[in-house]
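Page 42, continued from yesterday. The earlier attempt failed because a stray header line got pasted into the input along with the sequence. Redoing it now with the clean sequence only.
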Amino acid sequence: MNKNVVKDKSYAFALKIIKIYKELKLDQREFILSKQLLRSGTAIGALIMESEHAQSKADFINKMNIALKEANETEYWLMLLKDSDYLGKEMFDNIIIDCREIVRLLISIVKTSKQKASKL
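This time it went through. C-alpha cells are written below.
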C-alpha cells in the first residue's frame, strides 16, 4: 500500500498544533489566537482525510484547495503569535517549516490534479 505523505505530515502537524494550543492556553492564558490556530491547523488534515473519499475529481480538488487555504491561514496565525511574543522563536522556527512544507505539497497536489482534470 502506498504511503500518503501529505496525510501523514498533516496529522503529525495537527498533533504539534494541539501541543502549542495547550501551551498557549495554559501557560500564557491566550485564548483567542490560539483557538484560531487550533481550528485551522487541525482542519488541514481533516480535509485531506475527507478528500480520500471524494465523490469526483472536482470534489477532490476542492477539498485539497480548501486544505491549502487552511494551511495558509495557519501560517498567518503562527506568524501573528510569534510577532506578538506569544510564540517563542525556537517553537515558531520548528513549526513554520512543517507548515510551509505542507503548503508546498498541497500546491503541488492541487496544480497536478487540475492539470490532469483539464486533459480529460
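Notes: The chain has four helices and no strands.
Reminder to self: strip header lines before submitting.
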